[in-house]
Amino acid sequence: MNKKHGFPLTLTALAIATAFPAYAAQAGGATPDAAQTQSLKEVTVRAAKVGRRSKEATGLGKIVKTSETLNKEQVLGIRDLTRYDPGVAVVEQGNGASGGYSIRGVDKNRVAVSVDGVAQIQAFTVQGSLSGYGGRGGSGAINEIEYENISTVEIDKGAGSSEHGSGALGGAVAFRTKEAADLISDGKSWGIQAKTAYGSKNRQFMKSLGAGFSKDGWEGLLIRTERQGRETRPHGDIADGVEYGIDRLDAFRQTYDIQNPNKKAEYFLAEGEREPKPVAKLAGNGNYLKNQLNRWVEERRSKGQALNSEEEAMVREAQARHENLSAQSYTGGGRILPDPMDYRSGSWLAKLGYRFGGRHYVGGVFEDTKQRYDIRDMTEKQYYGTNEAKKFSDKSGVYDGNDFRDGLYFRPNIEEWKGDTNLVKGIGLKYSRTKFIDEHHRRRRMGLLYRYENEAYSDNWADKAVLSFDKQGVATDNNTLKLNCAVYPAVDKSCRASADKPYSYDSSDRFHYREQHNVLNASFEKSLKNKWTKHHLTLGFGYDASKAISRPEQLSHNAARISEHTGEYTDDGKDKYRLGKPEVVEGSVCGYIETLRSRKCVPRKINGSNIHISLNDRFSIGKYFDFSLGGRYDRQNFTTSEELVRSGRYVDRSWNSGIVFKPNRHFSLSYRASSGFRTPSFQELFGIDIYHDYPKGWQRPALKSEKAANREIGLQWKGDFGFLEISSFRNRYTDMIAVADQKTKLPDSTGRLTEIDIRDYYNAQNMSLQGVNILGKIDWNGVYGKLPEGLYTTLAYNRIKPKSVSNRPDLSLRSYALDAVQPSRYVLGFGYDQPEGKWGANIMLTYSKGKNPDELAYLAGDQKRYSAGRVTSSWKTADVSAYLNLKKRLTLRAAIYNIGNYRYVTWESLRQTAESTANRRSEDSNYGRYAAPGRNFSLALEMKF
């Protein structure tokens, strides 16, 4: 059916919201006139809830997605949320979880993330594990959000602290959870929604069940969601035909003396045993083979002294063990496949409230989400390579029983061990060397809410007032588990050091980090108008009492034993050894750590508080101009009793302004200016804590808040054809905090001043960048009435170009910001939605340019360095998706991604090798593991009752 559209784009966008809710909402204009408000009163309220201009006049840099958008785009995780949004990327932190978002050239704690106005946990990473055996002491992850609980997502690109507070330097991502009305169909008093989905790229299976009701003033909802998945698989041909050849160390018994055939080999007698046994030697020891055994064999043969069969067998046993391993089985540097991961999550969302007096609502919320990422680090070699022979060179090779491999071990040299000091500690050669990383997140929130709602432009003191209190705790638990207790080639995550396995070993290097927030927020909205102007005022107050607690733990166990020469010999001169029964002893590095000022194996705590007040006015003058003007004042205090932990008061002011000129209903010119700030994160307040100790009296240098300024200008055309928006932006960041070395004179043990490099966090950088953003949608029926209604095209483009970077001259930087800049990206979509919503399909085409290597270069002192060793090339891909509604209660959705099975690597994935990554994979020589998945699919079935 063809029809002529009689409304401007404000209503056109609402009409096509089902087809493409994110972009349709973005197209909305200023407040509709009185006639439209009267005739479309309910629709207008819903549009304001998800509108790009609901809080700021221009809408520049805004992306809004509803739960319907998330369903249509088949969002199964954080990496799907911004799949088709150029300029917004997910930060990979290297251990399965993510470190938040990257927007406008900055990332992690510089992009604010909140749920229902409550800030989420900060990315926290200490500089290394306590044990020094590799790995990070903290994950660097930001807790992820359960998307089945989400009603709307607002992505704000550009500085926005006047709305989002500290952290909104490059932008912000604000989530709003569902209300009972989101689960109840129109005209019903209750509703049930069930959803089951599967994604093949990471074999994720999701199931969600929610129920809501509204009866006699009472309303509530309950949603339970569970997910289970694996690691994301790279392109299928990455590992085709790949095989690794390794040479590993093992043990052999030296039963013969090859150099002197008439001389007996080295034997010993274990106390309590009757027969002497040959000493265990290291098989694959290159120096021994080259300079002794293999040379002796050649000398024997050159003299015509052939080796007998037993000697030949012993020589073969003395060589390195060669194995050919598949890509799946191989462990070590250069592994082409990602680490295996088991992912699980479970979430509850419950709300219950009561409406009374027609305008008042009182309710409560409970939210509990658990996530776990259990990984085996396959870059940890399971075997001991021939280049590690030196570890075992000074061991006697004596053993009891028949397993001669028990005679070869190396000593852990970091822990302080409890128990008998005569016990010999060691890690046995015969055990598989394995490393597991378990990362567990938990977020729990309880809250109370009062809401008052009235008609717009009423005579009452407020049109809307909201008072809320939320108590939230978010914890991350990162445990690096090193195990040497399963006999090679077996792998057993549940094994531990035990007395029946001599020289077995286990070590747990654990880091707990927790943030608690008690948040009180109040907001008041009032609309005013006269003959020429309309105002929408919002006044906000807030108080946040916060606490950050970091707690490292390190504990090791070893099956140690007495192993000593008795001082006696057999009648024929063989050594006698005393080998005691193995005992499991406990050890830790914390005894040494406790002697340092810079690091402790005890909980450390920072208390924080923040008071803020904000005022925003979105107003129009006549029909040609819309404005927004707002400001916010924040005062934050951080206190601590911990040594070498920063504290202090930060007072920050932020603002925003916008103007829209509309000469006619089809064209508008917009300008937006805003500012942002970020107070030092808890990680930066705790400071660098591993590289060196500090003399008494030295304190960490104070840090200032980072600042950001954002300027944008945009043009928008809208009409029956759809809309097109082109904008140009410029962002400037000052006082950026970075890890750097500063030459400092400190007294040595004799009191003499000595100049050393102090590595810590400093306000070290300023930088600016500029870019272009294009967003549009074409309604082809509006362009040409004979084309089918529901046929559309979407387009999006984003380009960011760094303009300048300046560093403090007295610092030598050890980190760099511009690797967060995403390459330019184009996204073009073609789709059709049947006018009655029965079915629809679309294809999305994505093209990305490669990463510019110049953006990775920086100066550390006078030395040019690169934050990553490689960059990505340009790439392209195409995705298709479709949905089918069955009897208004069932919706079947399906999508095929990368339909051309194109092989490519995104910068977001390869950036895991950059210096800024929490768990950097800098040792990888094979970058195939970062390849995007090949052709993959997702399926979802939604049921509504």
Structure explained in plain terms:
With 945 residues, this protein is mainly beta. 9% of the residues lie in helices and 48% in strands. The chain has 13 helices and 45 strands. It has a 22-stranded antiparallel beta barrel. Strands 1-7-8-5-6 form a five-stranded mixed beta sheet. It is elongated. The protein starts with 8 loop residues before the first helix and ends with a strand. Residues 1-48 have low confidence and may be disordered.
Summarize the amount of helix as a percent range: under 10%
What's the helix count? 13
Strand fraction: over 45%
Gyration radius over CA = 33 Å
Shape summary: elongated
Summarize model confidence as the mean pLDDT: 88
Largest sheet: 22 strands, antiparallel, barrel
Structural class, by secondary structure, is mainly beta
Amino-to-carboxy terminus distance? 30 Å
Contiguous uncertain segments of 5+ residues: 1-48
Total E-strand runs: 45
List the helices and strands and how they pair.
Layout: H1 9-15, H2 21-26, H3 34-39, H4 41-50, E1 62-66, H5 67-72, H6 78-81, E2 88-92, E3 98-103, E4 106-107, E5 111-115, E6 118-119, E7 150-157, H7 161-164, E8 171-177, E9 190-199, E10 204-215, E11 218-230, E12 243-248, E13 250-253, E14 267-270, E15 277-278, E16 280-283, H8 286-302, H9 309-318, E17 321-326, E18 341-356, E19 360-376, E20 409-410, E21 416-417, E22 427-428, E23 434-453, E24 464-484, E25 505-529, E26 533-560, E27 563-569, E28 575-579, E29 583-588, H10 590-593, E30 604-621, E31 625-639, E32 648-664, E33 667-678, H11 682-686, E34 706-719, E35 722-747, E36 753-779, H12 780-783, E37 791-807, E38 811-813, E39 825-833, E40 839-848, E41 857-860, E42 863-866, E43 875-886, E44 890-897, H13 907-910, E45 936-944
Parallel strand pairs: 5-8, 14-28
Antiparallel strand pairs: 1-7, 2-3, 3-4, 5-6, 7-8, 9-10, 9-45, 10-11, 11-18, 12-17, 13-16, 14-15, 18-19, 19-23, 20-22, 21-29, 23-24, 24-25, 25-26, 26-29, 26-30, 27-28, 30-31, 31-32, 32-33, 33-34, 34-35, 35-36, 35-38, 36-37, 37-39, 39-40, 40-43, 41-42, 43-44, 44-45
